[in-house]
Write a structure and sequence with these properties.
elongated, ATPase_P-typ_transduc_dom_A_sf, endoplasmic reticulum, transmembrane, ATP-binding, Calcium-transporting ATPase, cytoplasmic domain N, 45% helix, 18% strand, Rossmann fold, eleven-stranded mixed beta sheet, cell membrane
């Protein structure tokens, strides 16, 4: 056996069957084919369970522990705990083990609870009942028990439980109508077709008699592609083979509409369905703050090792003198004398590591976890993010990324249902330059006062009247709209008539419905398609019948559709509607200039425009058209190309009638939200599966593209005219011609000095751009970089015709670019799940298209407008709070441990602790934990209203600015300085016997009382008061809770110390702190030294803040100072733009102005110093 055979076998059994078999055979109803036809090969397929959870009952503990110990701090404390167990160390193993156990337990409970919610949601879906045909009867099953080959009965408004091939429907023509909103974002009705030879089987008994097999490709994620065939075994020997395509495939997650019931066979189930294959695999998301924490921990670990090494070396230098190595009161045992010096040195090194290990703050992780968990409730409790219509507020699915909401640089948003409400509204039409504006009607719901016609402009002439009626008839006939009898949707009756027997319109295109409804308001009502005749009701309430002869369907290349109809009088008409760019070049007469002007006016307003034209056909022309179309449709090869050529010949020499304007209604405040995100420095990309024209119109309406934005197209249409390489380099030259080597990141994005560019790209072109470079190709590999360079210089990007995985690829491409920006993805359908999972932060909208996006997201909000407050307010606060928490924790632990390091130089490097064990254990758990936890939950450095009014404040915290290395170094040096003041201040004051004698005559006794533990307690007291007051100085938002916790923590420390040293505790073997604290407080000089050392420690930070606020204030600090002056009412009457830093145009020019401005800052600062800590 050669190696290739072995390799094939390994890949077969290790990689799974789907990776090596290119097709599968499905036996409908699990029936074996007739003998002698083909071999029966049963295949094993997965069941229909959907899994979005990360853990199972069995793997939760090992998997969760593995993930938690990947954190540097957790792993480090595990090692320290094991060292304390193994060797004799200065401190108890409990001091490390207990906090570590607490951290691991709290985190595991939180993550386990979040995953339990995912399991609960999965079970709700997997246990849904489905109807399966078995032995000629309909049986109810749970969705998870569905198998490939089962014949399923689906009723109207039910969701397809898996991917199905349509066998038959309740309609005679074998069609059914489906909405795929949760898959590709389009809520319009699409038509699917049953297999011709099985469409007559309309009952369970008949369906059960079908004997057939389906051969199809293995599961793949492309929603729009499917290749297969069905072999139907009738009485004859050879089976009938019919081709299957995407028009026969019903996808999981889509919903059956306007069809009473269907029968279909399951071909892809569970995680093999196209919807599931478009899910990204879940991965642990880590925020930028957590990455900074890990980097700081590595630095502090290096500091810790350095401290331990220095002390170990100095210990053996100190013990070089035998009298110091083995004094008379501390003789070594024989075993200790015989131990090798390297082993002794290593043991001492580990002991020093344990002694100093508190510099790594394990409690910081507990506090961070608690801050994230408790802080996430502020989003859920926010009344402004509650939607009355849905009756729901925002949801937090994971609290690990709260602070990442304050760091977003790129926002990737879906269009349909996210930016828009998915409701089309007919606005106006223009016929030969005359504009008609009906009252508002939307999707069959008639608004008040909609019985009249408002006309702008003078009435048309007699010839114009004929054109007007032709225009209205064209829009009533040139469409694929279907009529359905009245139904109740969400308790609201939908219909097109008032007070009459009503019906309503459905279509694969929602704007077609809006146009037909608009014509109803203008006097021409489309009634029905019956026996291939279209019926319309004209203004005189007369029914006109037109025979529908041909439909030339819309496609994205032609960008138009046409119908050929015959009137009652026998006249033949070809009506055509389409984009202005595809109609105007084919027009030979009509009022082109007037219509073009109106179209351009409406396009600027962000409305979706269509032009309408017609021509009369003679009988000879019609026969020629029929011949062209039939020959193209019968072609087996290049059918699409031949049809396109036929359409091109037929659709020309038109007479222009007019144009329409339809609005895809934006969600409330969507444009304001996008504008705010732009001002905050974020780039907004729209990723949609919708058509380019639709998406572009929405981008204009939502202010993503502005009037002066120059649109750059990178689409299939353009790459057909010239190569992708040439198009990319042309676009690159265009955007770089003005900006040079600078990118748009340099500018505010709102400056009028620079040309705004907007890029439009479609899915097919994106695939070509993302394609890996071919070997030997010199240019292929650079496409991604060129594409990214173009995107960086565009203020907005629109990606249309995107498959779900392509959305995720775009997000991944931007994440991996050299700037490594923080990305956010927001969407409302299952087609957005991959993008939501790929982005750093995923937000789902609880919309009309199911809850898949909301369930798989990190956060869920009711409407797009709530994103503004979530980022600009909650995100801003979360980041400010947690960055202070992280820096403060490292600072207070440096203050805590550095005196312990200095103390070793005064105790012969004997590993003697400076602080009592109780102080060591409780410092981070009790004495200093609550004030910083409360600060990180409720601090508001700027008023909430100001943050919403001035989005540019978001830029002050961009790119993790508060956790940069210079700030980290400042906090560390501040901690070292304070520690030196604590230690040496106490040391020199303590060394003076006159100072410490408290006026007593027996100085020797007093000196004895002021021993080792008294010195440590004095240092520890100054430490606790200093770090707590430092946090009080940093607090801007004072409430009674702050006062209670900060002063309560200091009081708790004093009371605990009095009780700990004032009572003889029976459970302690020895009590070295007995009466120490009270003896210290009995000394007046000790009180004076505590107050003096606290003031000296805090002085440098206060001076630094005073100078920075006076000389180099940030925008945030200006607003804080002004807000103090106006006593918190700044948001009511002060223009915020006046508080931004003025631009520098030259030193001499602004010298007087700068002097005045600086004086104003000093005034603000003085007011601030008086007011800042006033509740």
């Amino acid at each position: 056996m050669d190696f290739s055979t072995i390799r094939n076998l390994i890949s077969r059994y290790c990689a799974g069957e789907e990776n090596w078999v290119d097709s599968r055979t499905v036996y409908i109803g699990h029936k074996v084919p007739p003998p002698g036809t083909e071999a029966y090969i049963p295949q094993r397929y997965p069941d229909n369970r959907i899994v979005s959870s990360k853990y199972t009952f069995w793997n939760f503990i090992p998997k969760n522990l593995f993930e938690q110990f990947r954190r540097i701090a957790n792993f480090y404390f595990l090692i320290i705990f094991l060292v304390q167990l193994i060797i004799d160390t200065p401190t108890s193993p409990i001091t490390s083990g207990l906090p570590l156990f607490f951290v691991i337990t709290v985190t595991a409970i939180k993550q386990g609870y979040e995953d339990w919610l995912r399991h609960k949601a999965d079970n709700a879906i997997n246990q849904c009942p489905v109807h399966v045909v078995q032995h000629g009867k309909v049986v109810r099953k749970q969705s998870r028990k569905l198998q490939v080959g089962d014949v399923v009965l689906v009723k109207e408004d039910e969701t397809f439980p898996c991917d199905l091939i349509l066998l038959s429907t309740s309609r005679d023509d074998g069609t059914c109508f489906v909405t795929t909103a949760s898959l590709d974002g389009e809520s319009s009705h699409k038509t699917y077709y049953a297999v011709q030879d099985t469409k007559a089987f309309n009952t369970e008994e008949e369906v059960d008699t079908i004997q057939a097999t389906i051969e199809c490709e293995q599961p793949q994620p492309d929603l729009y592609k499917f290749v297969g065939r069905i072999n139907i075994y009738l009485d004859r020997d050879e089976p009938i083979a019919r081709p299957l395509g995407s028009e026969n495939l019903l996808l999981r997650g889509a919903t059956l509409k306007n069809t009473e019931y269907i029968y279909a066979v399951a071909i892809y189930t569970g995680m093999e369905t196209k919807m599931a294959l478009n899910y990204q695999s879940k991965s642990q998301k880590r925020s930028a703050v957590e990455k900074s924490m890990n980097a700081y921990l590595i630095v502090y670990l290096c500091i810790l090792i350095s401290k331990a090494l220095i002390n170990t070396v100095f210990k053996y230098v100190w013990q070089a003198d035998p009298n110091r190595d083995e004094p008379w009161y501390n003789q070594k045992t024989e075993t200790e004398r015989q131990r090798h010096i390297l082993i002794r040195a290593f043991t001492d090194f580990l002991a020093f590591m344990v002694l100093f290990n508190y510099i790594i703050p394990v409690s910081m992780y507990v506090t961070v976890e608690m801050q994230k968990f408790l802080g996430s409730y502020f989003i859920s409790w926010d009344d402004e993010m509650f939607d009355e219509e849905l009756g729901e507020g925002a949801l937090v699915n994971t609290s690990d990324l709260n602070e990442e909401l304050g760091q977003v640089e790129y926002v990737f948003t879906d269009k349909t249902g996210t930016l828009t409400e998915n409701n089309m509204e007919f606005i106006e039409c223009c016929v030969d330059g005359h504009v008609y504006v009906p009252h508002a009607i939307c999707n069959g719901q008639i608004m008040s006062g909609a019985s009249s016609i408002d006309m702008i402009d003078s009435s048309p002439s007699a010839e114009g009247k004929e054109h007007e009626e032709l225009f209205f008839r064209a829009l009533c006939l040139c469409h694929t709209v279907q009529v359905k009898e009245e139904e109740t949707v969400d308790g609201i009756k939908r219909g097109i008539h008032q007070g009459k027997a009503t019906s309503f319109y459905i279509s694969s295109s929602p704007d077609e419905v809006a146009l037909v409804e608009g014509m109803k308001r203008l006097g021409f009502t489309y009634l029905r398609l019956k026996d291939n005749h279209m019926e319309i009701l004209n203004r005189e309430d007369e029914i006109e019948r037109f025979e529908l002869l041909e439909v030339l369907n819309f496609d994205s290349v032609r960008r138009r559709m046409s119908v050929i109809v015959r009137s009652n009088s026998g006249e033949l008409y070809l009506f055509c509607k389409g984009a202005d760019s595809s109609i105007f070049p084919r027009v030979i007469s009509g009022k082109v200039d007037q219509v073009r002007a109106r179209v351009e006016h409406n396009a600027v307003e962000g409305l979706r425009t269509l032009c309408v034209a017609y021509k009369r056909l003679s009988r000879e022309e019609y026969e020629q058209v029929c011949h062209l179309l039939s020959s193209a449709k019968l072609a087996l090869q290049d059918r699409d190309k031949k049809l396109a050529e036929a359409y091109d010949v037929i659709e020309r020499d038109f007479i222009l009638l007019g144009a329409t304007a339809v609005e895809d209604r934006l969600q409330d405040k969507a444009a304001d939200t996008i504008e705010s995100l732009h001002k905050a420095g974020m780039k907004v990309w729209v990723l949609t599966g919708d058509k380019m024209e639709t998406a572009a119109a929405t981008c204009y309406a939502s202010k993503l593209f502005r009037r002066n934005t120059q649109i750059l197209e990178l689409t299939t249409k353009r790459t057909e005219e010239q190569s992708l390489h040439d198009v990319l380099f042309d676009l690159s030259r265009t955007v770089l011609r003005q900006h040079g080597s600078m990118t748009r990141d340099t500018f505010s994005g709102l400056s009028s000095d620079f040309q705004d560019y907007g890029l439009i790209i479609d899915g097919a072109t994106l695939s070509a751009v993302m394609k890996p470079a071919q070997e030997g190709s010199g240019t292929g590999g650079n496409y991604k970089e060129i594409f990214l360079e173009i995107c960086r210089n565009c203020s907005a990007v629109l990606c249309c015709r995107m498959a779900p995985l392509q959305k995720a690829q775009i997000v991944k491409l931007i994440k991996a670019s050299k700037e490594h920006p923080i990305t956010l993805a927001i969407g409302d359908g299952a087609n957005d799940v991959s993008m939501i999972l790929e982005a750093h932060v995923g937000i789902g909208i609880m919309g009309k298209e199911g809850r898949q996006a909301a369930r798989n997201s990190d956060y869920a909000i009711p409407k797009f407008k709530h994103l503004k407050k979530m980022l600009l307010v909650h995100g801003h606060y979360y980041y400010i709070r947690i960055s202070e928490l992280v820096q403060y924790f490292f600072y207070k632990n440096v203050c805590f441990i550095f005196p312990q390091f200095l103390y070793q130089f005064f105790c012969g490097f004997s590993q003697q602790p400076l602080y009592d064990t109780a102080y060591l254990t409780l410092y981070n758990i009790s004495f200093t934990s609550l004030p910083i936890l409360l600060y990180s939950l409720i601090e508001q450095h700027i008023n909430m209203d100001i943050l919403k009014r001035d989005p540019s404040l978001y830029r002050d915290i961009a790119k993790n600015s508060l956790l940069q290395w210079p700030i980290f170094v400042y906090w560390t040096f501040l901690g070292v300085f304070d520690a030196v003041v604590f230690f040496f201040g106490a040391f020199f004051l303590f060394d003076n016997t006159t100072f410490t004698s408290n006026g007593q005559l027996m100085a020797t006794n007093t000196q004895m009382m002021f021993g080792n533990w008294t010195f440590g307690t004095l240092v520890f007291t100054v430490l606790v008061f200093t770090v707590t007051l430092k946090l009080a100085l940093d607090t801007h938002y004072w409430t009674w809770i702050n006062h209670f916790v900060i002063w309560g923590s200091l009081l708790f420390y004093v009371i605990f110390s009095l009780l700990w040293g004032g009572i003889i505790w029976p459970f302690l073997n020895y009590q070295r702190m007995y009466y120490v604290f009270m003896q210290m407080l009995a000394s007046g000089p000790a009180w004076l030294s505590i107050i003096l050392l606290i003031m000296v420690s805090l002085l440098p930070d206060v001076v630094k803040k005073v100078l920075c606020r006076a000389l180099w204030p940030t925008t945030t600090e200006r607003i804080q100072n002004a807000d103090k002056l106006y006593k918190g009412h700044l948001s009511e009457f002060t223009p915020l733009s006046s508080l931004h830093a003025p631009p520098v145009h030259g030193r001499g020019h602004n010298e007087g102005q700068n002097h005045t401005h600086r004086r104003t800052n000093w005034c603000c600062l003085c007011a601030n110093l008086f007011l800042r800590n006033t509740p």
